[in-house]
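Appendix B. Chain record.
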Amino acid sequence: MSDTTRSRAKADRRAAMLAAAAHLFAERGFARVSLEDLGAAVGVSGPAFYRHFAGKQAVLGALLVGVSEGLASGGRAVVDEAPDAAAALDALIAFHVDFALANADVIRVQDRDLDSLADPDRHDVRALQRTYVELWVDVLGQLQPGVERTTLRTKAHATFGLINSTPHSGSTRGSEKAQTRAVLERMAAAALRA
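Structure tokens predicted for this chain:
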């Protein structure tokens, strides 16, 4: 097996572990999931997790920090590729709706278990979230000059609440997913432009 193949297999195993952790943490809560549960979900022993993560709390950290990094970098890419602020706002809305529909388990974990993170990971998640929010605030500021940043930040947070409620209220599967996406995008756009 080549180094590239081995590295890819290791990365795939780690991704599978994080996906299993997201599902189990969302279903049962962080405190009610053991390393043995996580291992069983991906067909390895609990101790095999230690080859990838220092412990259960490190799994939670990797999951939530990783998602926050993805939102911050993905949001930045969306804004950088947009031809103007109006297009950037529409693209940010679509980007966040895509995230919410694809990551219902992660949203549940974030809502319930953020306080279970180690302090450095919680600090990283919060800093990345602030970076992501400020992307939205900057775009809104271009579209609504003269509106205070505090008000624009409130609009952004309220929109995240709307979109991130999907795991609790909307369908993220099957034929209803497209309808859920359309409703969320229309409502978010209306709220942000109000």
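Further analysis of this model is presented in Appendix C.
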